[in-house]
Amino acid sequence: MRVFLIAGEPSGDALGGALMAGLRQLCPDVAFDGIGGPLMQAQGLHSRFAMDELSVMGLAEILPKYRHLKRRIAESARAVIDTAPDVLITIDSPDFCLRVARLVKAQTAIRTVHYVAPSVWAWRPGRAARMARVIDHVLALLPFEPPLMQAAGMECDFVGHPVVAQPQADAAEIAAFRAAYDLEGPYVLVLPGSRRSEVARLAPIFGAALGRFAARHPRMRLVLPAAAPVAALVREQAASWPVPPVVLDPRAHDAQTARAHKRAAFAGADLALAASGTVSLELAAAQTPMVVAYDFQWLTWQIMRRMALIDTVTLVNLVSETRTVPECLGPACKPDLIARQLEQVHAAPQAQEQAMALTMQRLGQGGEEPGLRAARAVLAGFGQ
Fold first, then answer.
1. Distance between CA 263 and CA 256 in Å, rounded?
2. 0.85 exceeded by the pTM?
3. Which residues pair with 215 in a beta bridge?
4. What Rg do the C-alpha atoms of the chain give, in angstroms?
């Protein structure tokens, strides 16, 4: 079986890596081609170009790179058509992936699977119908998504969210992490994103907010796990913060040690300040209370706020059907407002802890690993 996969950002790379491992387990003679990051490459993918080229978020942010992305779309579609795989699996990054699928479907009958349903429950509900023209099967991460995809004419399976399969640090690992970084007291986990654009925009705001919060909690330290592609920028930005953070730079360690440090940092934190995104689920899995904050380009914010169908962007709030995770978005992404929310969560985390536990249960915790479930769903499309 030949599988062509495309992922455009680290979260997609993680999904792709787990799916590839599941496919190898169920179909040992599978062969892979496509675009992906280190986790997919570890499963045998030779990426046709660096996945980082596709890691762009926000309508305004995409515009300067539009011509280059358009060339990569055409190049990727041509590679799929020329190699004629049994299935094309596109993973998230819909602005790129679905354009590739459209070009492929225009010239072939190759089966198309898209991993991660578009958030039609949040905005632009018409995307499902347009997607159905080029996608045969959707693998959904959230339990309420399959009916929406099926109503648009696509097959859809809820395969669980990969966060429920991620290992969690135990007490001994947390203690070792604390000793390695001389962290004796409480600390706030700081997560300003994994893309250069969002780190540059959020780091000054986060630093100022945490300075205000730390002034009321002088024993509170800051720990900032940096994504490798932006680690240098993170260090540069954090150097001017009122309270210097402990930066976890994955480049300073082998991959296994870096992942272990990150797991322990998440599990040992008393509180977190995070950019919006799937990181909220990683925090929920570690049972770390959080505040979510994100600032957008003006044009992106104006478009999004007019098109939004929901009142929260945080997945913990959506899956648990609560609103226990406070958000400071767009014009509300200001240091004083963020510091105030951090204070409130720190004082009373109990309701959020219950919502996080419910979220993990609903996302498939305790069941078969999502990567294997996703692989079974892909193979079921071929009657296997």
1. 11
2. no
3. none
4. 21
